[in-house]
C-alpha cells in the first residue's frame, strides 16, 4: 500500500497551522483594539506609539530613521512617511546627525512626550483587559519567556527564508 497523501483540508487543520493561527489572530485583534483606542483617545496610531516608545525610553536620545525602520520592521519609505506625519502633528522633529551628513535623526518633541504619557495609559488599559486579565500570571510569564525565545531565534538566524 502506498503512503497516505495529505489533503489540503488535513493540512489546514494541522496543529502547527492552528497554533500559529491563534497567535496571529490574538496579536492582530489586540493590535486593532489598541490602535482604535489610541486613535480615539490620544490622536495617534499604535505604530506612532511604538515610535514614541523608542524615542522616549532614553530622554534626549536621537534615533536614526534607519534604526526606527529596523525596530518597527518598516521599509525606509514607510518610516519616512510615518515620521512625516508625526512631524506634521508636532510629535517629533528631525535633526541632522552631527557625525554623518547622510543620516537624519529623530527626537520626540515636548508635545510628543505628553502625547506618549497619555497614550501609555490607554495602552495599559487595553493590554490589561485583553492580555493580562484572561490568563494567570504564571501563564503570562511562560508566554512572555516563550515569545522572547522565539524572537531571539528569529533575530539570531541570519540564514534568511526557509526555502526547501
UniProtKB/TrEMBL annotation:
The keyword Protein biosynthesis applies. Residues 13-152 form the HTH marR-type domain. It holds the Pfam family MarR_2. Keywords: Initiation factor, Protein biosynthesis. Coiled coil: none annotated. GO terms for molecular function: DNA-binding transcription factor activity; translation initiation factor activity. PROSITE patterns: HTH_MARR_2 (PS50995). GO terms for biological process: response to stress. This is Translation initiation factor IF-2. It comes from Streptomyces himastatinicus ATCC 53653.
Amino acid at each position: 500500500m502506498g503512503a497516505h497523501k495529505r489533503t489540503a483540508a488535513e493540512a489546514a487543520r494541522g496543529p502547527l497551522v492552528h497554533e500559529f493561527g491563534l497567535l496571529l489572530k490574538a496579536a492582530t485583534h489586540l493590535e486593532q483594539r489598541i490602535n482604535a483606542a489610541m486613535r480615539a483617545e490620544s490622536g495617534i496610531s499604535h505604530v506612532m506609539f511604538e515610535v514614541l516608545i523608542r524615542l522616549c525610553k532614553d530622554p534626549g536620545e536621537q534615533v536614526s530613521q534607519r534604526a526606527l525602520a529596523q525596530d518597527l520592521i518598516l521599509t525606509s519609505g514607510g518610516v519616512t512617511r510615518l515620521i512625516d506625519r508625526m512631524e506634521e502633528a508636532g510629535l517629533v522633529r528631525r535633526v541632522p546627525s552631527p557625525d554623518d551628513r547622510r543620516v537624519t535623526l529623530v527626537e520626540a518633541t515636548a508635545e510628543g512626550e505628553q502625547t506618549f504619557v497619555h497614550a501609555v495609559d490607554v495602552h495599559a488599559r487595553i493590554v490589561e483587559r485583553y492580555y493580562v486579565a484572561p490568563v494567570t500570571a504564571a501563564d503570562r510569564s511562560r508566554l512572555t519567556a516563550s515569545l522572547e525565545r522565539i524572537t531571539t531565534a528569529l533575530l539570531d538566524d541570519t540564514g534568511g527564508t526557509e526555502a526547501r
